Amino acid sequence: MAVGIFDSGLGGLTVLDAVSKRLPDLPLIYFGDNAHTPYGVREADDIYDLTIAGVQHLFDRGCDLVILACNTASAAALRRMQEGWVPEDKRVLGVFVPLIEALTERQWGDNSPPRQVDVREVALFATPTTVSSRAFQRELAFRAIGVDVEAQPCGGVVDAIEQGDMILAEALVRSHVDALRRRMPKPQAAILGCTHYPLVEDVFRAALGKDVAVYSQPALVADSLADYLERRPEMVGDGTPAFLTTGDPRSVEDKATLFLRRKITFEAVD
Ligand code: DGL
Predict the structure, then answer these.
(1) How far, in Å, is the centroid of ligand 1 from the Cα of 113?
(2) DSSP states of 189-225
């Protein structure tokens, strides 16, 4: 039994990397739905169907706990999955809540009513589907009041990263930051609400400037998972780690090896 990490493609590797650094003995099975990436321009029903197919695959491999390391799937499918699809003995966790807990300085599982927080103006960078779902704002409203969120749908960035075109990805990031700044000139904090964006985090940071606190997910998700597993140690197992993809494994592993700077071997799945 291993912990599963699901993403629409390569982005979730940023979360896998942080989790393996934080919890080096935890066996992880990665599932990248590279054949259907990007999710960020798909309809919610389509994302739901693709996400449950991938997560079912991870359950079939023996994972009892799966992290949806994809904001788009977390935004468009997670609630529906948790309400009617996830079996009683399995858990599927998303990646929004750790980010929002960090932004609102809450401890894990603090369910007290929403309160005023220090940060007032927040820039959210995410895929078009995540932005239009307003899932981030909904989760934030459970925890904080008086926070103004300006969201920028970052069309094209995931596609460029998946294709390995980092020059295009970087140019797109700069233009999305400019577009957001025209509507919110001085955000105090910026949320990188897509697991692909840590791969271009330096570009976000440079474009935003040093006065903006940038919240990036991988380390926050890893800390939150470590916390969760301390409370639910029965979800930790001793399965065999693997990297699975619905895409072409050779091309996926070439890019993954480049991103993570270590050799990764992918196995093809349907
Ligand atoms: N990396 C994913 C996310 O966090 C999905 C990107 C996509 O497939 O569009 O949103």
Answers:
(1) 30
(2) EEEE-STTGGGGHHHHHHHH-TTSEEEEHHHHHHHHH
Best probe residue, ligand 1, of 154, 158, 201, 246 (max atoms within 8 Å of C-beta): 158
**Domain range 97-216, CATH class:** alpha beta
pLDDT at 113: 82
Output the pLDDT for position 41: 87
Residue spans per domain, the chain: 3-94+218-268, 97-216
Ligand 1 atom 9, closest CA: 40
**Residues in the chain where the model's pLDDT stays below 50:** none
Active site residue 154: no
pLDDT of residue 220: 93
Indicate the CATH number for domain 3-94+218-268.
3.40.50.1860
158 CA from centroid of ligand 1 (Å)? 7
